[in-house]
């Protein structure tokens, strides 16, 4: 993702593509085509698995103000959140109903079989809900990480295009003065 911004001929854009990309870049700078216009913020919050949103999404404008190094750090923070969410899913195991029932029977010998069965079903249902909640958080974290990577790629491409455009403008200015 964070390759050198060196000029490579095989990545050369046509004049038309450069103009279109430059126009898009200028429009984005002015906020006209900011497709990722979400609540502002440039840092992930700590993953809190009791909350609905594990971290705050970013907007393209806020991301555009960051250096390449800061963008890389942000991507790495997002990767850590994905790993954390993955570990959070794998740390919970759905116990078979028979196993839950057996444990409850040992812990609650005074309860009737129907009470133990009801408690076991309730416990298993709660575990299923918890697993689904953790999976939803994982999917949300992963989706936001993918969106962040996409935004960063667009920013890096825009920076590269701007660099190429500036070089061309400088070359044209140099030709006019000679």
Shape: rod-shaped
Radius of gyration equals 26 Å
Put simply, the count of helices is 5
Mean pLDDT: 78
Total strand segments: 0
- What is the H-and-E element order? HHHHH
Q: Which range best describes the helical content: under 10%, 10-25%, 25-40%, 40-55%, 55-70% or over 70%?
A: 55-70%
Distance between the termini: 39 Å
Q: Assembly type of the shown chains?
A: single chain
Contiguous uncertain segments of 5+ residues? 1-8, 30-57
What fraction of the residues are assigned to beta strands by DSSP? under 5%
Commentary on this structure:
Helix content is 67%, strand content 0%. It is mostly helical.
Task: Give a topology summary.
Elements (H helix, E strand, L loop, with lengths): L14 H15 L30 H5 L3 H23 L6 H11 L5 H65 L1
Helix pairs in contact: 1-5, 3-5, 4-5
Labels describing this entry:
178 residues; mainly alpha; 5 helices
């Amino acid at each position: 993702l964070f390759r050198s911004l060196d000029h490579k001929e095989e990545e050369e854009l046509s004049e038309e593509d450069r103009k279109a990309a430059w126009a898009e870049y200028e429009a984005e700078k002015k906020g006209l085509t900011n497709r990722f216009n979400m609540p502002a913020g440039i840092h992930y919050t700590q993953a809190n698995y009791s909350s609905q949103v594990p971290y705050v999404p970013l907007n393209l404008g806020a991301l555009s103000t960051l250096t390449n190094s800061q963008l890389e750090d942000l991507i790495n923070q997002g990767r850590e959140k994905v790993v954390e969410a993955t570990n959070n899913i794998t740390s919970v195991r759905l116990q078979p109903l028979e196993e839950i029932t057996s444990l409850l029977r040992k812990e609650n010998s005074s309860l009737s079989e129907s009470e133990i069965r009801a408690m076991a079903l309730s416990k298993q249902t709660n575990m299923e809900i918890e697993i689904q909640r953790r999976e939803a958080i994982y999917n949300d974290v992963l989706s936001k990480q993918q969106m962040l990577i996409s935004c960063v790629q667009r920013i890096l491409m825009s920076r590269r295009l701007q660099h190429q455009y500036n070089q061309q403008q400088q070359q044209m200015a140099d030709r006019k003065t000679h």
